[in-house]
Structure formats: C-alpha cells, structure tokens
Recover the amino acids of this structure.
C-alpha cells in the first residue's frame, strides 16, 4: 500500500484535464490546499486521541517503573524493573513472579480460546440459518441481535440470576430433567465459574460473529451452488468444500476482533465472579492492583504486560494475514 | 409416503426446530429478567415460566431511589455527548482520510486501527492522571472525554469506508466551482452521509451506554455514576441476599431502549457492524 502509487492513480483524471499550464498550476494549488485542509480536519481527532490514548499509554509505561500510589500520583520514585521482577532476600518479587498473575494469564487465554471457538461454530450455524430464505427471517434476525445490544453488565446479572445456585432456573431445569442431583454453585465454584463466564460471553457475542459471517455469505456467487445442486452433491460437502473456504477471510476478521476483545475481558468476569482467582482475567488483575490495592506502579506493570501481549498477538496476526487486511485499499 | 418425501419433511421440521432453539436461546434470558422483575418478592424464589401473580413494586422501588434516577440521567447525558463529539470529529477526519490522498494517510489509519485494539486497562492509570489533572474525576464529563478512546477510532473507520464509496464526480464539480474543503463537506457530503452517521452514531451510543470499566474507576459517588455501574453495585446486606427483583427491574429499564433501537434500526446496525469489520 504505497501512497505514491495512489497519488498518481488519483491524479490521472485531473492531470488529463489540465491541458494548459495555467490550469495545471491551479490543479496543484487545489491539491495543496486540499492536503492542508486534510491535516486541519484531522487535527481535532488526533489531538483527542493523543489526550485519551497516546499520552495515557506512555504515562502507564512510565508509571510501571515507579512506586506510584493512587492517593498521591505525583510523589512517584523511579524504581526500575522492581514492579516486574526483582530478587530480594532470596525470593523473587514482582508481577512476573506472582502466581496469581500467571493464573490470570492462563484464565484469560483459556477464556479467549474456548469462547471464541464456540462463538465461531455457533455463529456460523446461526448465519447459515439466517441466510436461508424463510418467512419471518427479519424477526429472527432482530431476536438474534438482542443479546448483542444488552449491556454486558446486564447480561452478567441476568445470567447470574438464572445460574443462582438455590433459586436459579438452570439448576432447576437440570434437576427436573435429571442431569444433576444437587444444585451447582455455578458462579462460586472453582470448577464451574469459568464455564459460567464463557456461557455468558458466548451468548452475548454469537450475534456479532453471525452477522459478519452472514454479510460474507450474502456476497457469495449463487451459480456455484446451483451447479452443486444439479450435480447432487450433499449440502454438508458443499459447505466444507465451497462455502467455508469462501467465507474464511470474513471469519478470520471476526476471529481477530473477538480474540482481541476477549483478551481484554473485564466486565463479565468482574460482575459474575468479582475478584475470584479461579476466573480472574489480566484486566481484572491489573485493575485490582491499581484501584483496590492503590498500587499504581505494580498495576501499571501488569497493564503494560497486557498491552504487550495484545500488541504481540496483533502483530503476529497482521504478519500472518497480511494479504487479508489491505489498509487504504479501495 | 415415500422415503424422499419423508426426508424432505424431516428436513423442514429440523430447520424450524433449529430456528425455534435459536429464538429461545437469544430471547429467553431477557424474557426471564422481565418476568422476574414483575414478581412480588414473596414469589421471587419460585421457579416458573409465567408469573402467577405480578405487580410493579420492583420498578416503584428503583425509581424511588434518587441515585438510580440520577444514574439514568447521567447515562443519557454521557451517551449523547459522546455520540455528538465522535460524529463531529469523525466526519471531518473521515473526509480527510476518505477523499484526500496525502503522505502519512496510511500511518494515520494504522494508528486509528491500533487505538481501537487498545485494552482499556492499559491506559487506566495514565488516563486517571489526565482526568485528575483536568479536575474531571468523579464527574460524567470525565467519562465523556475517556469514551472517545473507543468511539472515535471506530466512528472514523466506518465513516471513512462510507466516504470512500461516494462517487468522485460529486467532489470534482465542487472543486471546479472553487468550493473550499469545508464547504465541500457541509454542502456536498453531509447530506449524503446522514445514513452512515445515523449508523455509527447508534453504535457509539450503544457502546457509551454499556461501558463499565471507566465508569467504575473514574466515578466515586452515587450521584455521578452511570447505569451499568449503578446496577453492578445494587446489592443487599451480603452476597447471599442480593435484591434480585430490583436488579432485574433496573436491568429491564436500561435494556428496553436498546432493544427498541435494535428492532427499529436492525438494518443500519448490521450494515455498520459489517462495514467496520469486513471492510477493515
């Protein structure tokens, strides 16, 4: 995506029109005026993003090397890498030596991989259904969108109530059917709480994946399906041989969006299981250090590590899927 | 009935059964929240699919709490301001990015994409400092400022893709007439961009309405909170006696506007979501 090639391409019609030198001069003047205006128009957005994203990010990096505390951010001393890792009196300290941090890293990765996989499988199924023509499709599509629109906090509360160990409808139904004998403490037990979190996240984000896949499905050429139907090829085979390869780019976009979202998960875990270590994500860990323990330096170190992990994942993805994302392509 | 007809009927039944499962799965949690919210507290712990008796006590209770009413008010102010700012800055930026070729354009796009992937918690301590320095801690205005971190990149991104799709001729005519870029935006593009702006505005509104982490961290007192935080912090004496009735009533109150928006504007929302992702 070299910008210079775009330049000449874009200018071709204008250049062809400017036959006389005077008109050509006017053309470049207009161009220069436009480029100047472009930067002027970008300025407010760039200033806003610097104020809320760029500068705070740099400060977080900086604070992670200090002993800053929330009550008095100004009185911070540089302490080097002590928040990350330090050897003192025969023991290791710092985020990287904290088993709870590594537990939260594992929780986050586990949560992300499992929930995104489930979302992709169910999202594709829902998209295939919505792509079929049937009466009431608009109603079904609106219904499918509802979980997406509900605030994460609200969905966490709604599911917390349905998953309530004593009075929840889910335990009730499972016991009526006979799958379990005793109620399960979904949100409190170390074994099930991660599954409760995954359940809520999957419910909430299937619509997003389904809609992206649906958009891709609707752009597929109809003729190869007609040909497959004439040849009597089984629909399942058609799906794996024709549809799946064609929607893979859209699916990859959905996966990366969802993965990046899942790696920074906070709301659903915080509301459903609060600060329990068996479900704690990296974001929950960092915020707990920052706000509840008031240890801004240590919390910033955790935040920085989270940022690095996500940046690494993004770079790896961009490197692998370079061909799929073409910035500025028309 | 031959086996072929049978297979056809079985397929239809299976198809509609699948649709029924999807419908129930998508809608049931919300439905269950609604029926829980209208149950009298004595019936709360009886599991049933249809309330045998019902009243609006839970709603009366949450609306009698001034902090909850205040939280709704704060949420409305914050969400509308965020949408306004995001659209204002987004439309000018997207004109620059979508219509003008200049050096550094792909870098700016890359930065915007990068910011939209930021984990919110990575800027938490730095942003806390900024908000305190501007004296906006425990103030909805601080939330309006901080929400631009996720609404602005997204708005710019989607508006840029829409901007690019508009025909070149429109602008060329304006340039020939000697119109300045600002006039071109307001007179030529703005009238055509309304649908795209409605879509992105809607998505920004939903994002701002639902945000939790910043709202939880940057506000302290009940009167300054937004609804998601107010709901998350609604609690009884201990973890074992949560006031489920009022919690469900509050949940329904904040969700109903969103559900109505989704049903009315589903086409727009779908096109906005897919433009943001697929074209990206």
């Amino acid at each position: 995506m070299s910008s210079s090639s775009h330049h000449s391409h874009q200018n071709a019609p204008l250049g062809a029109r400017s036959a006389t030198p005077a008109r050509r001069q006017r053309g470049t003047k207009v161009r220069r005026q436009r480029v100047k205006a472009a930067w002027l128009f970008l300025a407010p957005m760039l200033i806003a993003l610097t104020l809320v994203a760029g500068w705070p990010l740099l400060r977080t990096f900086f604070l992670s090397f200090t002993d800053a505390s929330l009550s008095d951010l100004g009185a911070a001393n540089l302490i080097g890498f002590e928040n990350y890792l330090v050897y003192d009196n025969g023991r290791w300290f710092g985020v990287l030596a904290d088993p709870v941090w590594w537990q939260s890293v594992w929780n986050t990765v586990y949560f992300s991989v499992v929930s995104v996989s489930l979302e992709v499988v169910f999202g594709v199924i829902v998209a295939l259904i919505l792509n079929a023509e049937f009466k009431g499709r608009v109603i079904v599509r609106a219904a499918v969108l509802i979980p997406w629109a509900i605030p994460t906090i609200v969905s966490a509360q709604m599911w917390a109530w349905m998953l309530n160990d004593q009075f929840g409808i889910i335990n009730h139904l499972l016991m009526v059917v006979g799958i379990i004998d005793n109620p399960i403490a979904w949100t409190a037990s170390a074994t099930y709480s991660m599954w409760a979190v995954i359940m809520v996240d999957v419910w909430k984000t299937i619509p997003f994946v389904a809609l992206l896949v649906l958009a891709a499905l609707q752009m597929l050429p109809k003729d190869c399906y007609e040909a497959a139907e004439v040849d009597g090829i089984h629909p399942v085979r058609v799906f794996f041989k024709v549809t799946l390869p064609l929607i893979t780019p859209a699916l990859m976009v959905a996966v990366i969006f969802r993965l990046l979202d899942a790696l920074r998960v906070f709301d659903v875990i915080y509301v459903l299981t609060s600060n329990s270590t068996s479900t704690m994500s990296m974001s929950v860990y960092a915020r707990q250090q920052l706000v509840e323990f008031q240890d801004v330096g240590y919390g910033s170190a955790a935040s920085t590590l989270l940022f690095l992990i996500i940046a690494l994942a993004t770079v790896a993805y961009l490197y692998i899927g370079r061909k799929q994302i073409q910035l500025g392509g028309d | 009935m031959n086996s072929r007809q049978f297979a056809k009927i079985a397929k239809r039944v299976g198809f509609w059964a699948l649709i029924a499962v999807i419908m129930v799965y998508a809608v049931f949690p919300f439905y269950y929240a609604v029926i829980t919210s209208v149950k009298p507290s004595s019936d709360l712990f009886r599991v049933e699919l249809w309330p045998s008796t019902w009243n609006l006590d839970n709603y009366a209770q949450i609306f009698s709490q001034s902090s909850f009413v205040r939280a709704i008010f704060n949420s409305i102010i914050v969400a509308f301001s965020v949408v306004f700012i995001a659209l204002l800055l987004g439309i000018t930026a997207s004109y620059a990015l979508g219509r003008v070729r200049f050096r550094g354009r792909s870098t700016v796009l890359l930065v915007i994409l990068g910011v939209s992937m930021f984990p919110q918690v990575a800027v938490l301590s730095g942003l806390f400092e900024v908000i305190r320095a501007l004296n906006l801690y425990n103030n909805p205005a601080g939330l309006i400022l901080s929400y631009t971190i996720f609404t602005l990149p997204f708005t710019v991104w989607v508006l840029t893709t829409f901007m690019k799709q508009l025909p070149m001729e429109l602008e060329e005519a304006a340039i020939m007439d000697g119109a300045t870029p600002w006039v071109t935006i307001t007179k030529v593009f703005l009238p055509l961009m309304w649908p795209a702006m409605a879509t992105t505005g809607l998505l920004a509104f939903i994002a701002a309405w639902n945000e939790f982490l910043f709202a939880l961290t940057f506000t302290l007192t009940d009167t300054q909170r937004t609804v998601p935080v107010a709901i998350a912090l609604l609690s009884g004496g201990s973890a074992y006696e949560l006031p489920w009735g009022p919690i469900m009533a509050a949940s329904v109150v904040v969700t109903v506007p969103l559900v109505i928006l989704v049903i009315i504007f589903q086409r727009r929302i779908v096109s906005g979501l897919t433009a943001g992702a697929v074209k990206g």
Notes: Chain B has two domains: 3-43, 65-277. The mean pLDDT of chain B is 87. Chain B touches chain A through 101 residues (CB under 8 Å).
